[in-house]
Structures are given as structure tokens and as C-alpha cells.
Design goal:
35% helix, globular, 10 helices, D-Maltodextrin-Binding Protein, domain 2, 21% strand, 2 domains, 9-stranded mixed sheet, alpha/beta
């Protein structure tokens, strides 16, 4: 009986919290990651086009702020490019919120340079050396005799935290590193700066920048989906409990499992969850 009671309680938590709120009124509020943002916006545009009267708003304040918004019941969906921290999860539960993760896509973090930069590839160790300041000149890694301009995401970013874990191994990023509030800002800075290096989600790589090989592997859909590319992570949408079946919220956060959702994810430059 004790086990049955526990199972019943867990199911109540998973199904119950999201049954009410803004989403039931045809309004879905989304906040969080600038990496997941383009997916959420494309999903929103498609979903609203198919469901008249539904209003979906998407803000991009960073993964950390998305988590805070969900914890404080300020949004229905928290976009996050990292998993929720234990401290965030505890704060959510303490406030009556049960975060449930929906993996909507897979992403590789591309290391980008200016198209004029002759450097074609770096190792993870070299990238870490650049960002710690141990490697200061491009000539030290096969490039011109010019100082490297380092561009990083702000500490509220899930992309930053993934980079810190998979590349920096918790070593401190040098104090002279410039910070940017979004993937788009990192790309824009690298576009205009021949000596710059930065890192962005795979969906933000275009012809205006050059993605370099990492450990001799170029980031693309195949290498990321197969797990060969060394700097990769899942992308999440978190909800308060599992959305009630039949609601707009449930349909929205499971859109990535449909053929159309997969096509949207792929068209933006990310990898559908069915590809791995």
C-alpha cells in the first residue's frame, strides 16, 4: 500500500500542476534560452497559424532567467540549453512547481572565427588555452601574428555553462574576455572582427562566420547526432508538471515529435531528437 500511495502522489505531481494557468486560456508564455529561442519562435508561429485564438509569446532572457520565471510561475515554458540545476529544482519544488524536461532538439556548440582567419581547426586543449589567456596570439595555433580577441557568453547563459563544463573544465576564463548576451551578439562580434573567436549554437552558424574543426571534427548534423563532435548538448523546454493531455500546452511542447516539428528544428540548423 505504501508503494501505491507513493506512485499515486508522484503521478498527481506530474499531471496536476500544469492543468490550470495561462495555457488553458489559449495563452502560452515562454522565456529563457537564446539558443532554444529560435525553435520556440518557429514553433509558436506555426502553432498559432494552425490554431486561431491561441497567443504564444517568446522572450529570450537566458536559460537561468527562464528557470527563475518557471520557478516563480511567471511562464508556462522555460527554454533552457542546459539541464536545470539541483538548486533551481529545489527552489521550484519549494514553491509548488515540479519541473518536467522535454528534450526538443540536439545542438552542437560551434567554435567560430572570422572567414578570413586561416585557422581551420583547434583542439579542446587549445580552445581552453585561448580562453584562459595562456594562448594569446593566433600564430601560436597556426594563424597570423595577431592578438586573439575572445568572445564569450554571459554567465546566465546555458551555452556558457556547457562551454565551461565541456571545454574549460571549470578553469577560469580570462578577465579580458568580452561577453555577449546572446548567440546572435557573439556571431555579430565575430563577423566584424578578423581576430575574434567565439562560440555559438549550431543553428547560428552561417556564411558570415567560419566554424572550425574541434579535435579534427567539424560540427554538423551528422557529427553532433552521432555524438562524435565533442561539444554537444540537448536543448530543453521545461514545464510545471507534465501538461494535461489535449491542452494547447501539451500539443506545443510535443510538437518536436511530429514530422512538421522535426522539419522546423532541422530547417533552423539544429538536430531533431529522432536523429540520434
Amino acid at each position: 500500500m505504501k508503494r501505491a500511495s507513493i506512485v499515486t502522489a508522484v503521478l498527481a505531481l506530474l499531471i496536476g500542476p500544469a492543468a490550470g494557468g495561462m495555457a488553458d486560456e489559449g495563452k502560452i508564455v515562454i522565456d529563457g534560452s537564446t539558443t532554444v529561442g529560435p525553435i520556440a519562435k518557429a514553433f509558436a508561429e506555426y502553432y498559432m497559424g494552425k490554431n486561431q485564438g491561441v497567443n504564444i509569446t517568446v522572450s529570450e532572457s537566458g536559460s537561468g532567467n527562464g528557470a527563475k520565471s518557471l520557478i516563480n510561475k511567471g511562464c508556462d515554458v522555460a527554454d533552457m540549453s542546459r539541464f536545470m540545476k539541483d538548486s533551481e529544482y529545489k527552489a521550484a519544488v519549494d514553491n509548488g512547481v515540479l519541473p518536467v524536461a522535454h528534450v526538443v532538439a540536439v545542438d552542437g556548440i560551434a567554435i567560430i572565427v572570422h572567414p578570413s582567419n586561416p585557422v581551420k581547426g583547434l583542439t579542446v586543449e587549445q580552445i581552453r588555452g585561448i580562453y584562459t589567456g595562456k594562448i594569446k596570439q593566433w600564430s601560436e595555433v597556426g594563424g597570423p601574428s595577431q592578438k586573439i580577441v575572445k568572445i564569450s557568453r554571459d554567465t546566465n547563459s546555458g551555452t556558457y555553462e556547457t562551454f565551461e563544463t565541456l571545454v574549460m573544465h571549470k578553469e577560469r576564463i580570462a578577465g579580458d574576455t568580452e561577453t555577449a548576451a546572446s548567440n546572435g551578439q557573439v556571431r555579430a562580434r565575430v563577423q566584424k572582427t578578423p581576430t575574434a573567436i567565439g562560440y555559438v549554437g549550431l543553428g547560428f552558424v552561417d556564411r558570415t562566420v567560419k566554424a572550425v574543426e574541434v579535435n579534427k571534427i567539424l560540427p554538423d548534423a551528422k557529427t553532433v547526432a552521432s555524438g562524435v563532435y565533442p561539444i554537444a548538448r540537448p536543448l530543453f523546454m521545461f514545464t510545471n508538471g507534465y501538461p494535461k493531455l489535449g491542452t494547447h500546452l501539451h500539443a506545443f511542447v510535443t510538437l518536436h515529435l511530429s514530422k512538421k516539428g522535426q522539419e522546423i528544428v532541422e530547417s533552423i540548423g539544429f538536430i531533431p531528437v529522432t536523429s540520434y
